[in-house]
Amino acid sequence: MIIVDTREQKPLEPWIFRGGQRIVLPTVRATLDAGDYSVEGAEGAVALERKSISDLASTLYGSVESSSGDRAGHLDRFRRELLRLQPFARKWWLVEGTPDELDMHVLDRFRRINPASAHALVAAIACDYNIPLIWAGNRLRAGHFLGTTLGRIAEQISNPREAAKARARGLELPWLKP
Question: Cα separation of 99 and 122, whole Å?
């Protein structure tokens, strides 16, 4: 079962394509320690952090004013989130959009920022925190990536035959039972 964090405001619909049909996978809402999505039984090993294009741009360049009048960047909070993902065996940073959409959003909302700087910052974050960055293109593709990756892990956890196949390929995955 795929877990959706209770703080996720616009959850994706995880789906797979099987037998010529689009199949929506079941989800459950729960509070996760890290990430926006995980898999039941592997909450401490698997996490996916999702960002929409507007959320990504705000994370990179936005800030909020505290009650004391200090300004704190959203990027600092995001970096703390990524630090919590470090012990996870599998983690992804899924952007619900394209690099070109990030360019347009940065140009429109943060006029003094060069879009190339935004891409350099995104690449640096992915590199520094060793987290694979996936540009999904749109919500539908993001849901497919979510369903394909986390659905596969859920299948390996719940289906002994799938777990045996993974082990037979020489994979030592932390969610597989011996």
Answer: 10
